[in-house]
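Here is one such tokenized protein:
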Amino acid sequence: MKKLLISPSNMALGEQESQIYQNILKQSTEISLNLMAVKVENHPDDFLGWCYELLDVAKNRINFDLLDDHQLPTVKKLQDLLISAISFLQVKTLRIAPWPVISEFIADRQEILALEEQFKLMDYIATLRETTLQEMIVEDRLAFAGKHTAKHDVSVYQFDTEWFGSTKSAKGFHQQLADLPALFDQALAHIPLEGPVTEAHYQAFMIAYLGAFNGSDEKPTLAPATRLLAMRRPDVFTPISNNRLDALCQAFGIARLNNRDFERYWVDIVQTIAKMPWFAMATETNELEGHLVKIKALIPTFFYYADKDTPTSSNYYKLLHKPKRASTSSGSRTVKRSKESAATLVDRALNDEAIPEHIKAKRDSIISEVEKGRSVDETIQLMRTIFG
């Protein structure tokens, strides 16, 4: 272990990497006796590999039973520093890597990225773009805006809506969006659905987005705005989130954005990514690249740290594998839907040609059950069991 801990001192680290290493070393020192008890055979000769190896030690191989309670926050801090370092180092490669390297990196990580699920989200969002937020049912509006709820029926929403920038903590944003969706539609209307997006388009969006909060006690923040922009034009706008912003800004060599840096977002994030070699080189030579080209401004999000637990941390996965309760009388809460949402979800399901006409004739009954909180698939299956 000692050899592992000191090995970066023999690597040619840049100034940023050296500072990261010193911060990691400081946390490691406080639990050095625990770390020294771990046998290490893999000694990477690069800093990224070193971060992965030490993170594996800190997450999976250290003996947590021997840690004192006051040491647990130190271990968590060490893990967080290593995860941030890995994200920084991987995102940093975007500055110089050509398109084949970028696409190969993502292809190699398809499973831990839950890439199929993320693509399903973007395919679904593509069907919504020509519908205004005001016209959308609540579930679709939240899917577009990045907030997952129990109302997102897993038979329809076969993905976590919070990939590419969760906005669940932006309560003020969601309150305004629920109350005045038309104002956000006016802002998004300034961003063309096709063709070049100019700074003038973005400036017009920004003015309208900020104006959507006029007369409200809620303050407009940048992250939710970038989520809306990224769903509108995933080939132009990259969503940002507070927990990954440090790694992104460090990797791009820019000062950290704050939650009101609307002007800097266009210059430091959008234009910086647009000037990277791979961005201009992006071409479709296989099915995976075909998906990536359409959402190429989202590609930096695939370079953040992910591991084998990432797919199972998806809200979709958790809902899909949530233990079923026998009845609501036990105290479980029923998730009710509006009649409009229930009707929309049921109609989508009944469009399937495999569903018999006599089941489609039960549309109103199915809607009624879905409105009460039963899932669409469960209700249709129940109808087929009863009526054949």
